[in-house]
Design a protein that fits this description.
The chain is an alpha/beta fold. The protein has helices at about 15-25, 40-50, 70-85, 115-120, 200-220, 225-230, 260-265, 280-295, and strands at about 5-10, 30-35, 60-65, 90-95, 100, 125-135, 140, 150-160, 180-185, 195-200, 255-260. The strands form two sheets. Strands 1, 2, 3, 4, 5, 6, 8, 9 and 10 form a nine-stranded mixed sheet that branches. The longest helix has 18 residues, at about 200-220.
């Protein structure tokens, strides 16, 4: 198996130094796509290339640059094409704010070892691992509600020429072109993917404000109510203001669970590359969009005081 990770980034200097190095501990190679970052992202990628080798010279880290508007599907396809050119038999979806739990990394003989799970996945399947959404700390995660609910995350799949990404989509992680059945070799609580999504409340607020602005501009026919319903859920279980009968179990007081020490232990020497309190770039981006398009364009959206 040759497992190549694909990581899209934009202004991810706060976490990229950690997450990319972790990805290289369980992927054979890593394709990083940098979309117009204005922070130290490019320098961090170069430093990781120096450690693991430049892809163009036969090393393990391949650099792609993308310009223009954010186009998630085109970016994912760009990375998929590059990974295939490198002879990938399997592809890993590695976002910059995601870290594999260390207990799935360090014991190759363990039945839960990540690479073994991916290689053993049945044909026409996509390996999904339990997802743990961090909140306000690196040591706790949501254990219930919309951000808990025993979530799973698509992490890897075998290369198949039928698979691709295309279209004007947002938050679309899985490839298109063929039906991939979920393969879940690991139970919740046994490890999976730590999502640094909510480790800093300021970043979480700004990120969702930017999502609202982007959706308003890209899909002007999408209702304000629908945008609010989707992007207010970070704040509290009932913030959406819309009752979705199928999801009433999500609307309950949040509870949290502790992250086992073993999940972070293999990465202790890499934590110096993580700056959870860095100023989120999304704040300036929201302010720029509001100044450029006018407040009226975003009327009715709660931007959480970011703009």
């Amino acid at each position: 198996m040759k497992l190549v990770g694909m990581m899209p980034v934009r202004n991810e200097a706060w976490c990229l130094g950690l997450s990319a190095r972790v990805a290289l501990m369980w992927c054979d190679e890593l394709v990083i796509l940098n979309h117009e970052s204005q922070d130290a992202t490019h320098l961090i990628i170069r430093g990781i290339q120096e450690e693991h080798g430049y892809g163009d010279d036969g090393g393990h880290v391949h650099y792609l640059a993308a310009s223009g508007g954010w186009d998630e599907m085109a970016h994912r396809q760009f990375m998929l094409d590059a990974a295939r050119e490198r002879g990938a038999t399997h592809l890993a979806i590695c976002d910059a704010d995601e870290v594999l739990t260390g207990n799935l990394l360090t014991v190759p003989g363990n039945a839960y070892y990540a690479r073994s799970c991916i290689e053993a996945a049945p044909q026409n399947s996509i390996t999904q691992l339990p997802l743990y959404n961090s909140r306000n700390s690196l040591t706790q995660y949501h254990s219930n509600g919309v951000w808990g609910c025993n979530r799973f995350l698509s992490v890897a799949f075998a290369n198949d020429p039928r698979l691709y990404w295309q279209g004007d989509r947002f938050h679309s992680r899985e490839p298109q072109g063929a039906i991939l059945n979920p393969y879940k070799p690991i139970k919740h609580g046994e490890g999976g993917t730590l999502h640094l999504w909510g480790v800093n409340e300021r970043r979480l607020r700004a990120k969702h404000a930017l999502f609202k602005c982007v959706e308003r501009l890209r899909w002007p026919n999408k209702s304000i109510q629908a945008i609010e319903a989707e992007y207010n859920l970070w704040r509290d279980p009932q913030a959406a203001g819309v009752k979705w009968p199928a999801q009433t179990a999500w609307q309950q007081p949040w509870t949290f669970a502790d992250v086992p020490a073993s999940w972070w232990e293999p990465y202790l020497d890499l934590m110096k590359y993580l700056d959870v309190d860095a100023i989120p770039y999304q704040e300036a981006e929201v302010q720029r969009l509001v100044a450029e398009h006018g407040k009226e364009r975003f009327a009715g959206l709660d931007l959480f005081g970011v703009a």
